[in-house]
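S., here's the first fold you wanted:
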Amino acid sequence: MTSTPTPAAVALHRTMPTQIADGIAADIIEERYAPGDRLNEKELAQAWGVSRSPLREALRILEKRGLVVITPQRGARVTSLSPEEVEHLFEIRSVLVGLAARRVATRADAQLLERLAPHWHRLEQSMHDGEQYARASATATLAVAHAADNPRLAEMVVSFAHQ
């Protein structure tokens, strides 16, 4: 029998570079850094209380996620996507989320629907506030992806959500 680790157990096993990458990713997603902004290694290392080595590893993780671009001798910058690239990402994401939603629909029981209900409620409540709706939609999308009970699919949806 296989057991699924709890979020707390997963958090305990994340490396420092992964934790830093997740924190910087959250800052990028929350628009504390704009597309094209340079990420100053020295400042970030000081802010995180680490040497530049784990910070550089974190930036490489973010580069793999598509959130930053690293240029030799110039450092890391927040990825700046063209309208066409954004359209392509949303097209792919819609297929992945559709697959997750189908999986959820085929296994939905009262408990699962109850777990997802607050997300639908937040979406309804935020329909007239674009920024609030975007956040509620992102949260609902991630909840559906995780509820699909397919870790690889959830990982892909999370990756696209970060981009």
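And the second, which I think is the more interesting of the pair:
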Amino acid sequence: MTSQRTRERLLGRLIDQGIQSMQVLDIIRSTPRHIFLDEALSHRAYEDVALPIGYNQTISQPYIVARMTEALLKSGSLEKVLEIGTGCGYQTAVMAQLAKSVYTVERIKPLLDRAKRNLKLLKLRNIDYKHDDGSAGWQQHGPFDAIITTAAPQQIPQELLLQLAEGGRLLIPVGGDDSQELQLISRHGDEFSTEVLEAVRFVPLLVGQLQH
């Protein structure tokens, strides 16, 4: 179920799809994705697919996790990273192995509690958690070198842009159910440049809808 062979097969698929960073690939290889899934789905943990985690949310496809992580790693510092949408904690786990500090925000309390348990199992201690509406960021701990968003707004929240440090990057899917694109936005003073990476499909970023 979680054999080295299935993990290596996943790595091969990621390389075929263009993931080049050995650092990212090594982290994907060593991070046990099966612990982030319900037992009934754990046998599919090393397939390159998104899978349900409850509450109408999903654990992202490994390719997307690798692609987003690699894009941020290539583009600058990862001292202090903000994640919007903790989910079950898988992307958090990958990012925490690269960044000095990760601040992660989740609006669904049971998912946040599950993510904390998962990440404690991996002994990752450089993560701070918040149960809140992610569209507002986490101003108290900003500015951030990078902000990664795992849910798609129709329009980019200004608060996230303003919490970027000089040279900081926001990686965010933008769009509705029919069409989304992954954007990498970099801050230069009061100006922002945007690079479109590829078409994606994420759950929507919901504003002001906390779940306990």
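Why I say that: The mean pLDDT is 94. Strands lie at 51-54, 57-59, 80-84, 101-106, 127-131, 144-149, 164-175, 180-188, 191-200.

Talk tomorrow,
H.
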